[in-house]
């Protein structure tokens, strides 16, 4: 993809990674982009972020199509993670910027990554904007979004917020704007990004949204570091982010399970029957067919989480162990739930699943059900009733 002028003197110079399928455990089935931006002021030209190291030569090629890299005056590193700084060492050698703008923690992180302590770091001033001639860059801290050192850059003259990971999506496209792609896909990928990257730091996200509300930013372009740039649906994405950051939920339950010989599968289906009879939306996620990152996306807006596993070697099946580890890191909040399990001679799984839910403060609606080997007709009726009970609890609020 060639560089693209998104607004006069503001260029997208990123790269599209069509083949990315894993981002630290998050399945990126639609690929991604690493967005970087070049902004030309009347006096200074500024590069915001770089790309993953695999794409260094492509990135430098992109820059050369817009400007001779030596003519870039400043570089801003909004976020130190390697998908945005991998190309930075090579770019620093070629550009030799006067200043590299970062937060203090950003400087420490870049030094810990690249051990180039002689880079011309300029720690950003919280209050003062940086005048580049006809445009001013305001640096706004966004700690923990998605790392402690993160910040965003705002240019009021253009209504441009270069927002690093915030509002991003892992979505590789030839289009550069939100109104050029299918909205259902865009909402799913935006939710998936939030669920898999930001959910565990929702309090920090709430503070960030409050901060941009207080500052009454004139937002015309949300220039994200992944996926398409928001220009038409900015109120929509802000509304979604408020809902997710507040950990609000729909009248919905997600039943997540793994099965060995089909017993927990039968139980899961009976529980879903009860949920539906209660009048709530239900999602059934067999971990053999649903990736952890899609299941956690379903959990983002659910009210209830119901976990099920048979016993294996005094524990639970490994894919459920994987999912629990992942979920504990992403800390879904304000949920209710229960568990179900099957066993042969050691009724251990229910306790493990309950502890996992209690660790993330899920309010248990019911202690749950375990069956010996294969559920009977009566057992399945009890599972249906369990679904009904959870469904009624969801409707009760
Ligand atoms: Fe896109 Fe937190 O890096």
How far from one another are the termini? 48 Å
Q: Unreliable stretches, pLDDT < 50, 5 or more residues?
A: none
Q: If strands are numbered along the chain, what order do they take across the biggest sheet?
A: 1-2-7-8-9-10-11
Radius of gyration, whole Å:
24 Å
CATH fold node name of the largest domain: Metallo-beta-lactamase, Chain A
Question: Please, how many domains?
Answer: 2
The shape is: elongated
Give the total of beta strands: 23
- Helix count? 12
Walk me through this protein's architecture.
The chain is of the alpha/beta class. It folds into 2 domains: about 5-245, Metallo-beta-lactamase, Chain A; about 255-390, 3-Layer(aba) Sandwich (Rossmann fold), CATH 3.40.50.360. It has 12 helices and 23 strands. It has helices at about 55-65, 80-85, 90-95, 105-115, 185-200, 200-215, 235-245, 265-280, 290-300, 320-330, 350-360, 375-395; strands at about 5, 10, 15, 20-25, 25, 30-35, 35-40, 45-50, 75, 100, 120-125, 130, 135-140, 150-155, 160, 220-225, 250-255, 280-285, 305-310, 315, 335-345, 365, 370. The strands form 5 sheets. A 7-stranded mixed sheet has the order 1-2-7-8-9-10-11. A hairpin with a 2-residue loop joins strand 1 and strand 2 (about 10). The protein starts with a strand and ends with a helix. The mean pLDDT is about 95. Bound molecules: MU-OXO-diiron (FEO).
